[in-house]
Amino acid sequence: MTTIRTIAWKEIRTYFASPMAYVVASAFMAITGFFFVASVSDAFSEATIRGFLAGAVFMLVFMAPALTMRLIAEEQKLGTLELLLTSPVREVEVVIGKFLAAYAAFLVMAVLSLYFVLVLFIYGVPDVGPLFTGYLGLLLYASAALAIGLFASALSPNQLVGLIVGAGVLTSFTIVDFISDRVGGAAAQVLNGFQMGASFSVFDLGGFGVAESGHFADFARGILSVPDVVYYLSITTVFLFLTVVVLEVRRWR
Amino acid sequence: MIKLDKMTKYYGSYPAVIDVSFEVLKGEIVGFLGPNGAGKTTTMRVLTGFTPPTSGTATVAGFDVVTHSLDVRRHIGYLPETVPLYLDMTVTDYLAYMGMLRGMNSAWVKERLPKVIDMVKLGDYRETLVGKLSKGYRQRTGIAQAILHEPDVLILDEPTIGIDPVQVVETRELIKELGQEHTLLLSSHILPEVSMICRRVLVIHDGRIVADDTPAHLSERLQHTERIELVVRGAQAKDVISLLRGMPNIVDARSDVRAELQKPEMQGRTALLIDAKPNAGVPEKIAQEVISKGWGLTTLHPLPMTLEEIFLELTTDEDAVRP
Description:
The complex is a heterodimer. Chain A is mostly helical.
């Protein structure tokens, strides 16, 4: 536990000592802010954060790997991974420590975004249920996205590879409905089970919604369903586990 | 403290280290010598638990590197060849972080850190970002992280590579000091360094140990020829050389231009280096001949061969044996 805390704390300090966290947080706020404003600025528009959530879920496809790309790639490039793995530290402690640091950086963005909620309460009467489930969904979604990003970062000493592979995997999980619409039948059912969050409907600014299908849809609507929670936790666990495997395999080569 | 038994490591189908067995006792300072690609780094990576051996066993402080890897890692301080540092941390933060990873608590770090910083003379750079340090100071930071947690065994991979000559001397002094309280395994391809610091040398070549001895014994064992330094006054170099070449048991004689240039008192004197068969009484005969010619005999003494030459010989011998 001490080791995990040591690693996480070091990475958190590195985040806020470098411009990365600030750049990502500003971009996140600016773009989700645009989605939010567009969704609530019509006359008679609903006081919801669905617009913000659509923007956030979409943005995290790129932002999550941008946050995590440095974490393991740089250790490989600097050679510090050799030092880390010859210290009495388990691979799983390294992975969890770094994941927690990335998650903390994301939490800062989530807290900043509460500003949008404040605006809703000042100018309208929002329904509290969907706000709550929406944020819960976002926290779960982010943990899955960051785990995927961390896994991508472990693949190569090159940070760009981490960014592109991470965003690529996340995009694949995102455009599942685009594919399943075209295959149909049982295959479509299975594919839809993996639908992660935003979909092409994000680009349809008239709808201001996240994917109609997929695991994020219910959170956005204010419904809390166990399979969706389990889905995001599973993705997180599987990818953190794969990251540990990548590090262990490196040892045996 | 360190024990390797028939350790072999393959990278794919390439054997990096073959059948290496040796033991390092508590308190020994052992030099691990070999050209680049001989298997030094691989052996060290096995000992530090970074990579497991393909076959054979390795134990450090009584723990097997594969089955008790974490215990092994608790007992070693390791400086890899690349000196891995987090460039965006200050020296103090970096060392404290490494200490915590090695299982130190913050009280211990607080007590130990100033001592280590003094030891490696980093006092003026405590709050400097590691990325802004010169190579020599980065090396010291690397050494500091290896000794911070007071490990039983210190493993240093090429600790003086790529730093300037003044810092090399300082780093060697530091390593010598460290050798007084740690079991130390040090790799190098710079030979005078190893003979300076270590009382025992392991020579590795193409993944095999080819010699394991003290620097003095190594030079004795490998002395096929005896080298003699001769300085005479009042003679032409070519006369002396032709005289020497005519004598039995002398393999070669040549003028030692370097010695003549270096010392001003060599004015009017001729310096020569002679390779002769050992134990044939050659120095005595040279003295007789020089005096009978009426020249002034200023210097006549046998030179020990440097480890560098031994090393060259070891590796070339090995090459000749291979198909």
